[in-house]
């Protein structure tokens, strides 16, 4: 069984995918569950994941792909677009979130639910009170989920590429994301590396630990 350190050492950004090797449904389902279970500040879960898998969806996405990512999007088995919810500070969203926590048995008898709910509402409205209405904060939470996905995929033997090189406003128009009161912020390609993917053979390059770590 691979350790988390083995996974961190092995994971890399795939540059070329094998278009003839589809991603197994059970692995995709497992990775979507990893995303659903990802941690977020005050359990806010401000995300929605759009899975681009069909040829029609992929063709619709292509006009929003910057030139250096065209091959990855075209050849990967699937692309997941991460979008953030824009209404996370609303009473409706916060009440829905609390109701889900009750349904999942998060609060036992005597739990100080009212105080916890008030604390979360105070935090969320503080984060969402600026000029960006909390979009940066929500995006940071989505990137936590992205990190979980990247590590989980490597652990399952699935290759990935984080895709920042997309025209996200165009994606929001194409897939009706803006109309759903959401905003896409990042995407990831999933699949299996091509045999000639040179990046797979390159040593991982990182600053030494002493350059990035201070133990106090």
Automatic annotation (TrEMBL):
Record InterPro entries: Nitroreductase, Nitroreductase-like
Species assigned in the record: Sutterella massiliensis
Family annotation (Pfam families): Nitroreductase
Cofactor requirement: FMN
UniProt lineage: Bacteria, Pseudomonadati, Pseudomonadota, Betaproteobacteria, Burkholderiales
Protein name (database record): Nitroreductase family protein
Superkingdom, taxonomy of origin: Bacteria
The UniProt record lists the keyword Iron-sulfur: no
Signal peptide: none
PANTHER family, sorted: NAD(P)H NITROREDUCTASE YDGI-RELATED, NITROREDUCTASE
Record family assignment: Belongs to the nitroreductase family.
Keywords from the named record: Flavoprotein, FMN, Oxidoreductase
Residues covered by the Nitroreductase domain: 9-192
């Amino acid at each position: 069984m691979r350790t988390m350190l083995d996974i961190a050492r092995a994971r890399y950004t795939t540059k070329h995918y094998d278009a003839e090797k589809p991603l197994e449904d059970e692995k995709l389902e497992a990775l979507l569950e990893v995303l659903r279970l990802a941690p977020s500040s005050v359990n806010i879960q401000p995300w929605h994941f759009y899975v681009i898998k069909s040829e029609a969806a992929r063709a619709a996405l292509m006009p929003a792909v910057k030139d250096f990512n065209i091959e990855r999007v075209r050849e990967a088995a699937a692309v997941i677009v991460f979008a953030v919810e824009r209404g996370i500070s609303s009473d409706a969203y916060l009440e829905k979130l609390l109701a889900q926590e009750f349904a999942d048995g998060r609060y036992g008898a005597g739990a100080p639910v009212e105080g916890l709910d008030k604390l979360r509402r105070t935090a969320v409205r503080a984060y969402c009170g600026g000029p960006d209405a909390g979009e940066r904060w929500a995006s940071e939470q989505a990137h936590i989920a992205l990190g979980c996905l990247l590590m989980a995929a490597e652990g399952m033997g699935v290759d990935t590429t984080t895709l920042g090189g997309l025209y996200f406003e165009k994606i929001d128009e194409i897939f009706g994301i803006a109309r759903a009161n959401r905003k896409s912020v990042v995407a990831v390609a999933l699949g299996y590396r091509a045999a000639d993917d040179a990046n797979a053979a390159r040593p991982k390059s990182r600053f030494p630990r002493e350059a990035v770590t201070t133990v106090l």
